[in-house]
Design goal:
Blueprint (H helix, E strand, L loop, with lengths): L11 H12 L12 E2 L12 H12 L17 H14 L3 E5 L2 H11 L6 E5 L4 H9 L3 E5 L4 H13 L6 E6 L11 H11 E6 L24 E6 L9 E5 L1 H10 L1 H4 L6 H16 L2 H20 L10 E7 L1 H13 L2 E2 L1 E3 L9 E6 L6 H14 L4
The structure holds pyridoxal-5'-phosphate.
Pyridoxal-5'-phosphate binds next to helix 4.
Amino acid sequence: MKKKGHGLDRLAVYRRDLAVLEGDARLRSLSGRRGIDFSSNDYIGLAQAPRMVSAMRRALEHGVPVGAAGSRLLRGETEMQARFEAEAARFFGAEACLGFGGGYVANFAVITTLPQRGDLLLMDALAHASTHEGARAGRAEVATFRHGDVGHAEDVITGWRARGGRGAVWIAVESLYSMDGDRAPLEDLMVLADAHGFLLVDEAHATGVYGPQGRGLTHHLEGRENVVTLHTLGKALGGSGALICGARVLVDFLINRCRPFIFATAPSPLMAAVGLESLAILRDEPWRQAVLAGHVAAFGAEMRRRLPQVSLSGSQIVPLIVGPNAGTMDLAAAVQARGFDVRGIRPPTVPEGTARLRVSLTLNATRAEVIRLAETLEELWPDL
Ligand SMILES: Cc1ncc(COP(=O)(O)O)c(C=O)c1O
């Protein structure tokens, strides 16, 4: 590319940064789908399910617009979105729900809007990037606690109160962690939240998979005034977008004060139509969760037998920690060459020295394929 003006290389800073990433085996690039799905978040196989496709067709035939064409506060408000939110609130057991274009923006939006100046946002150290980004941009003081360590969370709160912290504490966790596949200790965190403020639970990887009818791991907490949940539509629910669920007054506050909600085009009403269908499928087809649980059990049993040194998560997200970045990506490439779409995950997405294969179990693979993957991993696992 031509350089113009004062001999300045405006792009040098970007080239240098990419070169550093490359030297560290951390340069990312986009690569399309290949092989059997062991990397998507389409856990219960809804993204291409015939009922979802028909729901989309039906919506189009009935004149549901492709785009919302405006902010929700203006002409972007559609009957389909309102129906979906009302139905989702009933389904999840919340007083109210509010839709966003995606989980990242929803998390960012809530964290920058609900915690107030003088409050403390207390995040699990492994919380999603969108939570960290919201924390940086928000008004509340920010602290983290060691992953899954409620005792540490309590110590941080005690220290903050001792230093004069008077506001509410917003404890932000994922019910099922996206890169580790382990669960948050929700019961104990709820006790802390009851004493100090609110529990904000990102259900991205649990919605549709856990709880009665896939209502998530917070199904028994939803509806409390100090519980706010995020249910994403782009993972097990097979579409795209997200819902924030909580007390009516908090949803009304978001409608009035949340800039990423107010100053943005509403999500496509078509996604609301397929969202309604995905909730209906969750009600009608509990076999999907059962088959996925069977995959998790079968993969776990095979892996324990074949690679006992590798620890497992017990959920549909199975992080197989390799350690070095380059070794992880080489292993991922070798597994991919055998026809399995398994992806490597490197820092900064995961902590330094814990690069891993993130095996994602979904209904897009058969039980036989799940077992074949374990066999292949045993064969290719590097001696480190
Ligand atoms: C825990 C968690 N929260 C939020 C998101 C963002 O959701 P979305 O992909 O809908 O933007 C993700 C997905 O990457 C996630 O893993």
